[in-house]
Amino acid sequence: MLPPFRIGHGFDIHRLVEGRACVLGGVTIPHSHGLDGHSDADCLTHALADALLGSMALPDIGHAFPPSEPKWKGMDSQEILRHAAHEVRSRGYDIANVDISIIAEAPKIAPHISAMRTVLSNTLSIPPDCVGIKATTNEKLGAIGNREGICAHAVCLVYRDDTV
Ligand code: MG
């Protein structure tokens, strides 16, 4: 029998480079640097998508959206997240809540958290108060602290949709 609840965890990191938009949680944040990657490189959304896939014990987003595939170049990561949510719901589960920690020395994340929660709740079709986002710095330690990149951790709880 399928368990009534499952959890998932995801992590992602992308390098900060010049000449790219800084997209986090589906929101473009004004900054001198942006995240480098094949898609829009939204590491917050990638970590969250991996958490959802992980809750179903599915492989990470690189399997469904391989970086070697030209058609995914520059893609909106909300599309990846929508795919991950569909994978959960097509297996008889729904999303209870998600929680994300983003670690960045710069830019300042806090002013954009409300907009990110709105975007992610729309993509996942869950209420904004079921989307937690917290931001912290790395206290100037290591590569993240040196502004070389931004990383994010995400967890989710899903429940069997025949239990409610
Ligand atoms: Mg990524």
What would you say about this model in short?
Helices cover 28% and strands 32% of the residues. The site of magnesium ion has 5 residues, from strand 1 and helix 1.
What can you see in these coordinates?
The protein is an alpha+beta fold and 164 residues long. The chain has one domain: 2-C-methyl-D-erythritol 2,4-cyclodiphosphate synthase (60s Ribosomal Protein L30, Chain: A), CATH 3.30.1330. Helices cover 28% and strands 32% of the residues. The chain is built from five helices and seven strands. The strands form two sheets. The protein has a five-stranded mixed β-sheet. Strands 2-3 form a two-stranded antiparallel sheet. It starts with a strand and ends with a strand. Magnesium ion (MG) binds next to strand 1 and helix 1.
Q: Look at the structure and name the CATH superfamily.
A: 2-C-methyl-D-erythritol 2,4-cyclodiphosphate synthase
Q: What is the tally of beta strands?
A: 7
User: Biggest β-sheet: count, sense, barrel?
Assistant: 5 strands, mixed
Quickly name the level 1 CATH class: Alpha Beta
Mean pLDDT: 95
Bound molecules: magnesium ion
Uncertain segments of ≥5 residues (pLDDT<50)? none
Order of helices and strands: EEEEHHHEHEHE
Main structural class? alpha+beta
CATH topology: 60s Ribosomal Protein L30, Chain: A
The main sheet orders its strands as 4-1-7-5-6
Taking all Cα atoms into account, the compactness measure Rg is 15 Å
Give the terminus-to-terminus CA distance.
16 Å
Number of helices: 5
Please tell me the total number of domains.
1
Residues in helices, as a percent range: 25-40%
